[in-house]
Amino acid sequence: MVVICDYITAERTLPAMTDELRQKLMSEIDIAEWETLLPHFAHERLFACRADLSLLDAAIAIAVDDVAGIRELIRSGQLFTPGDDLAMAWFAAKETFRFVIVQPYVLVKIRQVAQA
Q1: Which of 2, 49, 87, 116 could form a disulfide with 53 if both were Cys (CB 3.0 to 4.6 A apart)?
Q2: Which of 72, 43, 79, 76 is nearest to 58 (CA)?
Q3: Which of 2, 112, 15, 8 is nearest to 54 (CA)?
Q4: Is 14 domain-assigned?
C-alpha cells in the first residue's frame, strides 16, 4: 500500500476514494468567526471560496492534489487568498465562516445565514 497523504492510499480507486473523502471532509466542516481563523491567514495558509464555489468541492480538489482544477479555480477567482483589506473588513464585521482543514491549508466560505 502506498500512502499518498494521511487519508488517501494508492490502493483505492478514485471514485470510491472520492466518496469516502467527501464524507470525511463533510463531517469536518465547522463554523468559526474570522478572529479564530486569523492565525491561518497570517501564516498564508488560508484560501477563501466565492459564493458560487462549494467549500467541499474545493477541499476535495486540494486533498486529491488536482493541480489543474485548483489552478482553474484560482484563475477564475472562485478560490483566492484574501488580502489585508478584506481580512480587516471581515474582522470589523465579525464575519462568520464555514471552514475545513485540508493540511496544510484552511479553506473558508462566508456563512450564509437564512433570512426569517
Answers
A1: 49
A2: 79
A3: 112
A4: no
Q: Computed over its alpha carbons, how large is the radius of gyration of the chain?
A: 15
d(CA 35, CA 70): 26
- Please list the residues that pair with 22 across neighbouring strands: none
Separation of first and last alpha carbons in the chain: 51
In a domain, 42, yes or no: yes
Q: What is the pLDDT along the chain (116 residues), one digit of tens a residue?
A: 333 344 444 444 455 567 889 999 999 999 999 999 999 999 999 999 999 999 999 999 999 999 999 999 999 999 999 999 999 999 999 999 999 999 999 999 998 765 55
Q: Coil, strand, or helix at residue 16? A: helix
Nearest-10 Cα torsion for 3, 15, 24, 65: 50
Q: What is the pTM of this model?
A: 0.81
- How far apart (Å, rounded) are the C-alpha atoms in residues 89 and 93? 6
Q: Please count the structural domains in the chain.
A: 1
